[in-house]
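Entries read sequence, tokenised fold; example below:

***
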Amino acid sequence: DIQKGQFSLFDNGQEGEEESFFKEEVPEEELDKGQRLVFEKEMLGLYVSGHPLKGREGQLTANSDMSLLDIRGEKDGAIKKVSGIISHLRTITTRKGDLMAFVDLEDMAATIEVIVFPSLFQKHRELIEEDKVISIKGRIDKKEDQIKLIALELIELKKGEQVEAKGDKDLVVRLSPVQCKQTTMLRLKDILRSNPGPTPVLFELVENDSVTKMKIGPDFKVDNNNRLIAEIMELLGAGSVVRRSQNVQKTAAAN
């Protein structure tokens, strides 16, 4: 006790009463993967043991015009569709008393702030929550070195939903010169051939500000599925695969 020079770290001055130093107790039982990621985000502010979008890359790609990393190169005012998970959400009340939201949308490569004005927020209020995976069609808003997305439409992407094939789209695989090693290219070739389907494949060789586009032959058309996207990203990294309209300029045929 205090008179003997001893006291408890949690002593509140009343004998027999203690309160936990921690506001949240760590669960004793082992958490499943989804619960563990949510717990990590709540306690640490980031994901440690994995990413909640892992395994859903194909679904995101099929419901996006591009990744959040690529959207930064688009023009101000362009209308684009992107997908990701709501990693942070902040709501405010307007002068008229309506609620609107500022959403951090995150995919496997980057994060962008999305502004959801009152009319759309009211329409989809149940979807605008942290950890929801959604697809957003929006208008790019660029000011100086900042880029945001003004939400126009949004839908929820439920886990396990069938990915619908999208016409007039190429699967774009982005490579740096460092990645163009024989072992890497042979592995990429095996991945593509293991997923045959109707979607054309386009390579983009990215070096500094230069992009060389190469459309490969019909033997390498693929099926856009979660496994394919996940395998390519595992080989080349996040942001290495996007879907893009078949409006390709300066395309060189590659055999």
